[in-house]
Amino acid sequence: NANALSDFFFEYETPRQVLVRNRRVGVVCRLIQLGVLVYIIGWVFIYEKGYQSTDIAVSSVFTKMKGVGYTNVNGVERVWDVSDYVFPPQGDSSFVVMTNYIITEGQQMGTCPEVLLYLLMNSRLSLFQGEMTGVCVNTTNTCEVLAWCPVEDDRIIPSPPLLMSAENYTLFIKNSVTFPIFGVTRSNLVEGIDADYINKCLYHPEDAPLCPIFRLGDIVKLSGFNFETIAQEGGTIGIVIDWTCNFDVAVKHCKPKYNFHGLYGNPSDTGQTRPSLGYNFRYAKHYLENSVQKRTLLKVFGIRFDIIVQSLARKFDIIPTLTAIGSGVGIFGVATVVCDLVLLYLLPKREFYKNMKFKYTDTPIQVRSRQCAK
């Protein structure tokens, strides 16, 4: 109505402080204030570091492998060096180390019988190794294909892995990070990691946690897997370099931490419980022999290493500090709101408290008009 609308526009409410001597309300108020205080100090300032600004690093990673492998398959001896077993060879942050393989040598383009994979119930599955010519080969009971011949037969994976020596290969990681907001650049070759130390150190989570040289067998073990198991058919390991730094202290305390995670699956799983096992790809080396183009085909089973850099730097900043304090002070008002609700609506003497909390004032004209109305 008109009076309510008039009151809304022409009346003003001002806070009135009333000291209420009620133990229950007083205890509720102090408990709420204590909870807010614990939240501000414990969570906002101590845990979340609400008084600091943050920055994420821009990073680069360089890797280098060392080690020599040896195999003797059917009397054929081979020595494998870095250029043979690392893919790609450029030292990227993601690369594959070959641990097992199936080799098919002397392939050349022509026609030959295909290889079939025999399944249960006498059903057969073609491996689609070439273009069908429509000719049947009676000696093998298979179809003839136009392909690189002889075609690859990868039905039997070598066991144990042919390059178990990869367990003793070493990986050197060089990582640098820059925090642009704070203008700080750091490298994993921190203070004390010089050439003499690198030449003799090997990473250990407790004895040498800052050494940038890692033994592949140790990496796989720290990720939760058995090296022979993962080397058999391949897998993936994540190497996480964690830069969590507090620049309120000296920059030299900003150091990397290395963590290793098996991205291959669950270590407790067996081969039968995984729908797609391992990691492999094919790699061909082409050459000419008597003017005929030939190739050596390798089905490579290996461990893929993905080096992941995660970072978070913090430093004191007055703006987030004032913002955190201001929000905390505002939250303190929750105690007043809750206690007012208890006083005005829940306690038996709520009418008494309402009269004490709210006082109505009238202008002289309003007083005379009320008197005349009487």
UniProtKB/TrEMBL annotation:
Topological relation to the membrane, as annotated: Multi-pass membrane protein
Classification lineage: Eukaryota, Metazoa, Chordata, Craniata, Vertebrata
Main location: membrane
Reactions catalysed according to its record: Ca(2+)(in) = Ca(2+)(out)
PANTHER family: P2X PURINOCEPTOR, P2X PURINOCEPTOR 1
Species this chain originates from: Anabas testudineus
Glycan-carrying positions: 168
Signal peptide, first to last residue: none
Record-level GO BP terms: calcium ion transmembrane transport; response to ATP
GO MF annotation list: ATP binding; extracellularly ATP-gated monoatomic cation channel activity; purinergic nucleotide receptor activity
Gene that encodes the chain: P2RX1
Entry protein name: P2X purinoceptor
Domain of life: Eukaryota
